[in-house]
Write a structure and sequence with these properties.
This protein is an alpha/beta fold and 539 residues long. The protein has 3 domains: 3-117, MurE/MurF, N-terminal domain (Udp-n-acetylmuramoylalanyl-d-glutamate--2,6- Diaminopimelate Ligase, Chain: A, domain 1), CATH 3.40.1390; 123-357, UDP-N-acetylmuramoyl-L-alanine:D-glutamate ligase; 366-523, Alpha-Beta Complex (Protein-Tyrosine Phosphatase, Chain A). It has 19 helices and 23 strands. The strands form 4 sheets. An 11-stranded mixed β-sheet has the order 8-7-6-9-5-10-11-12-13-14-17, sandwiched between helices. Helix 6 (138-151) packs across helix 13 (348-357), helix 12 packs antiparallel against helix 13 (348-357) and helix 18 (465-475) packs across helix 19. 50% of the residues are buried.
Length: 539
C-alpha cells in the first residue's frame, strides 16, 4: 500500500493539508508502506510512524533513525519532525536515501487508530469483538469471557494487561502503562482463525484514541471510580476517555454496564444498554450469593424480553453458577461475562461449565496459601479496588493482616486517597493490622501511616517487602487472613511468601464447593457491611 492510499481516510478534518494537489502529496503515491506503528521500537525500514503520547519529539527522532519513511505527527511537533528529516536526509545522501515524508494531523492518537484500521484491512469488521473498560475488573472479565467462548468451542484472541493470545500462543503483556495497540493483533488473530476477540482498554489507551478504529459488538463498563487522575487531570476527562469505547459500537451492538455503579450507569446511554448487578434490578442479576475463601455459588437471573445480537430470544431463566475464585466483586465480573455469552447465543451448559472450570487470574484475589492461616494476593492499588479487597477479605477472616505495597509512581495525593479506603472501613476492619512497604518517598509513607493511625488502625512500615511479609507471618494466628495488596511493588510477594512457607504459590482444590453442599452458608455481621464503595463524586 502506498502512502497516498493509506493517508486517504484522514482527508477532511483529520489531515492538516491546505492543497491535496501539492507536490508533497503527489510524492506520497511513490512511497511504499510496509508497516504502521505508534511504537518507535517497532519501526523498520519502510514503516509509517505515528508520534503519540508524551515526548513525541524524542519518539520521532528515534523512529527516523530506525528507518521510518514517513511520520505522522500533531501540529505542534510536525515541524520538529521536518527539521529532523532534513537533517537525516543530508546525512544519508551518499547512500541514496530519500527524505522521509512528514504529515501533519490534528490528533495523532486518533490518526494512528484510523491508519492502522486501514492498513490492516478493518479486522474488527470481520469477527465479533468484545471491548472491556472500567476502573476495576477488566482483566478478570476478559479472561472469564475467553474461558466461556473456548468452552463453547470457539477459537479466540485476547488482548489484556496480563497476557495477549493470538491463535494457540499466549505471551505476557507489558501492563497497562502503555496503550493497547489492537489493530495488528486483531489482524493476526483473524489470520490465525479466531472467531471472536476480547480486548481490554485502559483509560489511557482510550484517551489516546486507540479505540477509534475498532468496531465493537459488545462494550462492557465494569465500574467507574477515581483512578489515573494524575494522567487525566480531572474526573470529567476520565469519564470522557471511558465513553470513547461506547462510540466504537457497531450498529446493533450492545453496552453492558454495572447497574450498581452510578457513574457507569450515566455513561451507558449510547447504543443498546443492558445492565448487570446485585443490589439493583438489572437485566442480568445475581441472587442468593454464598461465598468463602474457595469461591462463590449464586444464580444469575435474566430479565424477560431479552434478545441476542443475532436477534434470537434469550429466555427468562436462572443459571446456577459455581465459581472457584472468592470475592463478591468477582460475581460482578461473572455477570458481565455470562451476559456476553448469552448475547452471542452460546449454549447455557457451556457457560456454566466454563465458570466451574475457570481457574482465575494471577493476583486477582488469588488464594495462595491455606493452612492455619490463609493468604490472598490481590493487585488492589486504587481506592475502589482496595475497598473491594478489604471488604471481601474481612468477610472471610476473624482477624485481618494487610501487607500493602505503596506505589512509587503515584504521588502523595493518590496514596493518601488509598489510605482513605482503609479508614472508611474501620468499623468492620477491626481487629486489623496494616503493614506498608515499597519504594515510595518517606513523606508518602508518613502521610499514609498518619491517616491510618488517626483512624485507630495498628499500622507499621517496612522498606523491604520480605521483611514486611516476615512480620505478617510472625503475627498470623489460627484463622487469620493475610491480604497482599498493591500494584507492581507486590508482584514478587507470592514468590517470597512461598519461599518462607516452603509451599507452592499455586494451590489446587479438588472440591472447592464441598462446604456448600450441606446447606446455605451463613456469614456473621453480613448486614453491617456496606455493599458499595464510600467514594461518591457529584458531577
Amino acid at each position: 500500500m502506498n502512502l497516498l492510499q493509506l493517508i486517504g481516510p484522514l482527508a477532511g478534518k483529520d489531515l492538516l493539508l491546505a492543497d491535496p494537489k501539492t507536490r508533497q502529496s503527489r510524492n506520497w503515491a511513490r512511497v511504499h508502506i510496509t508497516h504502521v506503528t505508534g511504537n518507535p521500537a517497532d519501526v523498520i525500514p519502510g514503516c509509517l510512524f505515528v508520534a503519540t503520547g508524551p515526548d513525541p519529539r524524542r519518539k520521532i527522532r528515534r523512529a527516523l533513525s530506525r528507518g521510518a519513511c514517513a511520520v505522522v505527527a500533531g501540529p505542534r511537533h510536525a515541524g520538529e519532525g521536518e527539521d529532523l528529516a532534513r537533517h537525516l536526509a543530508r546525512l544519508a545522501r551518499l547512500t541514496g536515501s530519500s527524505k522521509p515524508e512528514i504529515i501533519r494531523v490534528r490528533d495523532a492518537g486518533r490518526s494512528l487508530a484510523i491508519l492502522e484500521r486501514s492498513f490492516y484491512q478493518q479486522p474488527s469488521d470481520r469477527m465479533p469483538v468484545i471491548g472491556i473498560t472500567g476502573t476495576n475488573g477488566k482483566t478478570m472479565t476478559a479472561f472469564m469471557i475467553n474461558a466461556i467462548l473456548e468452552e463453547c468451542g470457539m477459537k479466540t484472541g485476547l488482548l489484556s494487561t496480563v497476557s495477549n493470545k493470538i491463535g494457540p500462543l499466549a505471551t505476557p503483556a507489558s501492563g497497562a502503562a502503555e496503550p493497547v495497540d489492537p489493530q495488528p493483533a486483531l489482524r493476526a488473530m483473524r489470520e490465525a482463525g479466531a472467531e471472536a476477540a476480547i480486548v481490554e482498554f485502559s483509560s489511557r489507551s482510550l484517551a489516546k484514541g486507540t479505540s477509534s478504529g475498532v468496531s465493537l459488538d459488545i462494550a462492557i463498563l465494569t465500574n467507574i471510580a477515581l483512578e489515573h487522575l494524575t494522567f487525566h487531570r480531572n474526573l470529567k476527562s476520565y469519564l470522557a476517555a471511558k465513553s470513547r469505547l461506547l462510540a466504537a459500537l457497531k450498529p446493533g451492538g450492545a453496552v453492558l454496564y454495572n447497574a450498581d455503579d452510578p457513574l457507569a450507569t450515566r455513561l451507558s446511554s449510547q447504543g443498546r444498554a443492558l445492565s448487570f448487578g446485585i443490589e439493583q434490578e438489572a437485566h442480568f442479576r445475581a441472587l442468593d450469593i454464598q461465598s468463602s475463601c474457595y469461591g462463590s455459588i449464586f444464580r444469575i437471573k435474566t430479565a424477560p424480553g431479552l434478545a441476542a445480537l443475532d436477534g434470537s430470544s434469550i429466555p427468562e431463566q436462572e443459571l446456577p453458577v459455581r465459581l472457584k475464585i472468592p470475592g463478591r466483586h468477582q460475581v460482578y465480573n461473572a455477570l458481565s461475562a455470562c451476559a456476553t455469552g448469552l448475547l452471542l447465543s452460546l449454549p447455557v451448559p457451556g457457560i456454566t461449565r466454563a465458570f466451574e472450570r475457570f481457574p482465575g487470574v494471577k493476583r486477582r484475589f488469588e488464594l495462595i496459601f491455606d493452612g492455619s492461616f490463609r493468604v490472598i494476593d490481590d493487585c488492589a492499588r486504587n481506592p475502589g479496588s482496595i475497598h473491594a479487597a478489604l471488604l471481601e477479605a474481612r468477610r472471610l477472616a476473624g482477624r485481618l493482616i494487610v501487607v500493602h505495597a505503596l506505589s512509587a509512581e503515584e504521588g502523595i495525593k493518590t496514596n493518601w486517597k488509598n489510605s482513605l479506603a482503609f479508614t472508611a472501613l474501620i468499623p468492620i476492619l477491626q481487629p486489623c493490622w496494616v503493614i506498608i512497604c515499597g519504594r515510595a518517598p518517606s513523606r508518602v509513607k508518613t502521610a499514609f501511616l498518619a491517616e491510618l493511625h488517626t483512624g485507630g488502625i495498628d499500622a507499621f512500615s517496612s522498606d523491604d517487602l520480605a521483611a514486611a511479609l516476615n512480620l505478617a507471618i510472625a503475627g498470623a494466628g489460627e484463622g487469620d487472613l493475610i491480604l497482599l495488596t498493591g500494584g507492581h511493588g507486590m508482584d514478587q510477594g507470592a514468590r517470597i511468601l512461598a519461599e518462607r512457607l516452603a509451599v507452592s504459590p499455586q494451590l489446587a482444590y479438588e472440591e472447592p464447593f464441598e462446604e456448600f453442599d450441606s446447606g446455605p452458608l451463613t456469614l456473621p455481621l453480613a448486614g453491617d457491611w456496606p455493599s458499595a464503595p464510600p467514594f461518591r463524586v457529584d458531577l
